[in-house]
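Run log, item B.
One chain of 281 residues. Sequence copied directly from the ordering sheet:
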Amino acid sequence: MPQNGPSDSAEIFDRALRRKRRDRAARRYEGFVREHMLEGIQDRLAAVKRAFGDVLDLGSFGGGFDLPGARITRIDAGAGFAAMAGGVHADEDRHPFPEASFDLVVSAGVLDQINDVPGALALARRALRPDGLFLGAFLGAGTLATLRGAFLRAEAERPVARFHPQIDVRAAGDLLTRAGFALPVADVETLTVRYGSMFSLLRDLRGMAATNLLPGTPPLTRGTLAQAAEAFAERADPDGRTAERFEIVYLTGWAPDESQPRPARRGSATTSLAEALRVKQ
């Protein structure tokens, strides 16, 4: 987690540093968390009984998402990943695609690192045709709880913001609604990985392009790393491995269309709530 470079003070994350970190990760990519997300997205997609012809992979890394018979356009903020995937090099909240270009948008592993998440979701909705589907997954609140605790202990006297703000599942559902999606659903799944040392976890995070992107973070000292590693190791199980959590938030939303089911009009019910809940004799 080296010191971050300059950034727009109005933004949460350093865009230039994010591109640099993604290009570094492209050379030694560690994709097991994203692969887990893509499996979840495919499971949800399998429950939808319709075909999708034009697909946008929003934050594609080197590829990975596949849908037989579909035309897939890929976009990534890292030039290396975009080149590997044969896609477009652009930020996910500033992409160039026109309205109603796709009938499916998927996004795995990037929404937690985007400066303008509401804007990215709104752009995704506008890029969808009516009744088009959005499926997303990202690391949400509670992720890296063990590592956070280790660094809080190591820097107890002078705490430093080294971890990104996180979105919980309820806020994620609200973001879908704000972006104009119909029938929004947000749910969360925990992936637990056990590590022999904190440094193995840090290597995985670098390989995922998931290290600190906050602007102006002071560099880590050897003393801080040593204390954090000790605190991490103290939380190990009897076999010497420490469990770390990745909380994966899944999002499902549809571009509005007249054919979709709508809530009943207020006051249109023919049976009162009291009547519905009455115990039958």
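Observations after the first pass:
- DSSP finds nine helices and seven strands in the chain.
- The radius of gyration is 21 Å.
Flagged for discussion on Thursday.
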